[in-house]
């Protein structure tokens, strides 16, 4: 692991690191906010949305002040494999390929060699963090935005003992049913839609609800709400399955990091109280 940058922030340190990922067969960057003190600290994994790298969250969400106060480590990985030889959307579209790994393990050529973001996020990165940083891996949660909200919810539902708490901003709750998800899943996972259900929070919650309460914030003025996000699909399935959740529709807010920055404190306190 190599440190690429380190700056002091609210008494702690905001760092960016790089390492050679085995799961993704490429070099990867990730960001870590480390509060002041010796730890071990509870750890939150933040999963970003389409087009993002490890930089968006640390520069725009304003999470450091409250993470410092609460003594939380926040790890923010990049959103896809990167570098020479990693295939991208043939048209260079923003919603597939680079910057759009969808936190799944691709099974289809040519994606399956590098696009293993599920293994990376759930296994390789947490193992590296536990080795290199003063975290209490038994107190870990996951949260994210849009595609990363989808990642957080599916990763929590599939690994409720490893990622004990979960929250999301503007998540793609039912990727199998919306254009962003259909494009990504048909390419990464192929045409057999039963494979898609493994990475669809609405399908997963119906068969394996967790004991945690999931917090979802959704801007009511989000341009992607009606076509891509559809939080009510998850809410309906969760209610039916007995999954505890809180869905807050936030009047006037859009899809951007201005929305995330407005409510990030609530999410950090939500996780800290439950870990
Ligand atoms: N604005 C993008 C749509 C993708 C988008 O809104 N990405 C969100 C996550 S789904 C984001 O966080 N973008 C980066 C940023 O705002 O810093 C476009 O239409 O090209």
TrEMBL record:
Keywords: Hydrolase, Serine esterase
TM stretches of this protein: none
NCBIfam families in the cross-refs: fghA_ester_D
EC identifiers of the protein: 3.1.2.12
Reactions that this protein is recorded to catalyse: S-formylglutathione + H2O = formate + glutathione + H(+)
PANTHER family according to UniProt: S-FORMYLGLUTATHIONE HYDROLASE
InterPro entries: AB_hydrolase_fold, Esterase-like, S-formylglutathione_hydrol
A molecular-function term among this protein's GO annotations: S-formylglutathione hydrolase activity
Matching Pfam families: Esterase
Known function: Serine hydrolase involved in the detoxification of formaldehyde.
Family label: Belongs to the esterase D family.
Protein name: S-formylglutathione hydrolase
């Amino acid at each position: 692991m190599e440190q690429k940058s380190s700056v002091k922030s609210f008494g702690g340190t905001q760092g960016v690191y790089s390492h050679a990922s085995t799961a993704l067969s490429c070099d990867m960057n990730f960001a870590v906010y480390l509060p002041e003190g010796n730890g071990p600290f509870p750890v939150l994994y933040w999963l970003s949305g389409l087009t993002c790298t490890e930089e968006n969250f640390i520069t725009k969400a304003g999470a450091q002040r409250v993470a410092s106060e609460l003594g939380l480590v926040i790890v923010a990985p990049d959103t896809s494999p990167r570098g020479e030889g990693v295939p991208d959307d043939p048209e260079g579209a923003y919603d597939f390929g680079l910057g759009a790994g969808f936190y799944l393990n691709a099974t289809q050529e040519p994606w399956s060699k590098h696009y293993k973001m599920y293994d990376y996020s759930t296994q390789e990165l947490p193992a590296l963090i536990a080795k290199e940083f003063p975290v209490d891996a038994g107190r870990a949660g996951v949260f994210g935005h849009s595609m990363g909200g989808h990642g957080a919810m599916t990763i929590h539902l599939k690994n409720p003992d490893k990622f004990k708490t979960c929250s999301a901003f503007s998540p793609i709750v039912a990727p199998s049913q919306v254009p962003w998800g259909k494009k990504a899943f048909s390419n990464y996972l192929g045409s057999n839609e039963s494979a898609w259900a493994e990475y669809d929070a609405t399908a997963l919650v119906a068969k394996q609800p967790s004991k945690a309460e999931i917090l979802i914030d959704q801007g009511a003025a989000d341009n992607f709400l009606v076509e891509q996000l559809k939080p009510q699909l998850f809410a309906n399935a969760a209610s039916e399955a007995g999954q505890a959740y809180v869905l807050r529709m936030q009047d006037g807010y859009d899809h951007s990091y201005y929305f995330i920055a407005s409510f990030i404190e609530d999410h950090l306190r939500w996780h800290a109280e439950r870990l």
